[in-house]
Design a protein that fits this description.
The complex is a heterodimer of chains A (115) and B (112). Chain A is mostly beta strands and 115 residues long. Helix content of chain A is 0%, strand content 50%. Chain A has no helices and 12 strands. Chain A has strands spanning 3-5, 10-14, 19-21, 24-26, 32-38, 45-50, 56-58, 64-68, 73-78, 87-94, 103-105, 109-114. In chain A, strands 2, 5, 6, 10, 11 and 12 form a 6-stranded mixed sheet that branches. In chain A, strand 8 and strand 9 form a beta hairpin. The model of chain A has no long low-confidence stretch (mean pLDDT 91). With 112 residues, chain B is mostly beta strands. Chain B is 0% helix and 52% strand. The model of chain B has no long low-confidence stretch (mean pLDDT 93). Classes of the chains: A mainly beta (115), B mainly beta (112). At the A-B interface, strand 5, strand 6, strand 10 and strand 11 of A face strand 4, strand 5 and strand 10 of B.
């Protein structure tokens, strides 16, 4: 069964500082990989995705993520955090076989941004 | 930009009552999903739906739950007899051919 681990429950960074949120997955092959962001009381917005090809993917709002097969990781990064980035971030994996495309989510990392 | 919509945004019900949560997926999408998120916990998969039938369901999706696509636009989740532990945010999602799932804003269900 696939699983996702986000080891950091809560991270605080200063505005303008760089950010890296960790995500490790367990899956028999290379899954589809996603990062979603959830602002308080809001739904889930897709930040970026990895399906194949270039292992460094760019997303919205200046975020990027790097897929590292050897480490089973898909860490999310941003070079300079803005106060509006404060939210909860979820890493998710989806199977590649056509019969099962439900997403498995990690527990999330809550990002707090200090002025 | 097309989006997934859900109604109501907040539903309060008494334990044992039936609730129906409604979703309008993105119009050209063919795959539909329900997920739930209990307060403070991770998002959990409930069920997926394709070609007018359930294609996959999780252990959470027991006989108290059902899904339906009653017409060409709506996708509903029914909980037949709600329990306190059904209180959660319920998210609908739809997916096109590009494997991206787009989520609605959610319905917060409170069971008293």
């Amino acid at each position: 069964a696939q699983s996702v681990t986000q080891p950091d429950i809560h991270i605080t960074v200063s505005e303008g500082a760089s950010l890296e949120l960790r995500c490790n997955y367990s899956y028999g092959a290379t899954p589809y990989l996603f990062w979603y962001v959830q602002s308080p009381g809001q739904g889930l917005q897709l930040l970026l995705k990895y399906f194949s090809g270039d292992t460094l993917v760019q997303g919205i709002k200046g975020f990027e993520a790097e897929f590292k097969r050897s480490q089973s990781s898909f860490n999310l990064r941003k070079p300079s955090v803005h106060w509006s980035d404060a939210a909860e971030y979820f890493c998710a994996v989806g199977a590649r076989d056509t019969g099962r495309r439900a997403l498995t989510f990690g527990s999330g990392t809550r990002l707090q941004v200090q002025p | 930009e097309p989006e997934v919509t859900q109604t109501p945004s907040h539903q309060v019900t008494q334990m044992g009552q039936e609730v129906i949560l409604r979703c309008v997926p993105i119009s050209n999408h063919l795959y539909f999903y329900w997920y739930r998120q209990i307060l403070g916990q991770k998002v959990e998969f409930l069920v997926s739906f394709y070609n007018n039938e359930i294609s996959e369901k999780s252990e959470i999706f027991d006989d108290q739950f059902s899904v339906e696509r009653p017409d060409g636009s709506n996708f509903t989740l029914k909980i037949r007899s709600t329990k306190l532990e059904d209180s959660a945010m319920y998210f609908c999602a739809s997916r096109g051919e590009n494997n991206e799932q787009f989520f609605g804003p959610g319905t917060r269900l409170t069971v008293l």
